[in-house]
Amino acid sequence: MDETRAPSREPVDVINQYTGEKWYYSDIVKDHFFNPRNLLLTDPGEGEFNASGIVGSPACGDVMHIWMKIDPGTERVKDLKWRTFGCGSAIAATSMFSVMVTEDGGRTLDESRNIKPQQIMERLGGLPNRKIHCSVLVDKAFHKAANDYFRKANKYDKIVVEGAKVIDAATQTTDKDIEEAVLEGAVDLDSVQKKLKVGIGNPGVVPEVEQLIRFYKEKYYG
Question: What is the pTM of this model?
């Protein structure tokens, strides 16, 4: 054996051109990217699905559209199709989510709502830290589609509305800004303040900021 030869290393899938950070993708992620499940490339026919949701903007690069067929008697997701304009991680995460909500006869809408992005990542064998937010795109689109179904079914008490709330007027920081910061890896007050400057000049909002950090940390990382 040649002792001078450098040890073999796992090939790098992506290298960030700006930071040099190396990203590795599991075989499961690659499979769902190259062979996405439940992908719908053309708009469905009228009446084919009874719920839909869309999030994102073409200007930002990421758009997610979900269509679902819900059983009115059981509220189980019998079918879910999707289309996205996003990165490989977003495609793989959405593909896996579509499998999770429709397998074994389909989960109920309430059960599907309780799927955390962390659970999607576990089924995928992990995602690079900077790609965690990609598993959230499908989560947001699904919640919109679920609300669409409940609205059409006149079950308004089951609609969950998520709106942005200004937490710090001085910096115009909202709860959604804090959510995005946590998704990007800022999971304590110091790191969130470095990103957003929230509460630095207005310490009275710090307790609420800390509460939101704990909430989103639990929601996305378990």
Answer: 0.67
Please report the domains of the chain, with CATH numbers, ordered by start residue. 14-158 (3.90.1010.10), 166-221 (1.10.10.1100)
Residue numbers annotated as active site: 60, 134
What one-character-per-residue DSSP string does 19-53 give? T--EE---HHHHHHHHS-TTB--SPPPTTS-SEEE
Per-residue pLDDT of the chain (222 residues; tens, 9 = 90+): 433 333 334 555 556 555 565 557 789 999 999 999 999 999 999 999 999 988 875 544 568 899 999 999 999 999 999 998 877 888 999 999 999 999 999 999 999 999 988 888 889 987 766 666 666 788 888 998 998 999 889 898 898 867 678 898 888 788 988 987 888 788 999 999 998 889 998 899 999 999 999 999 998 887
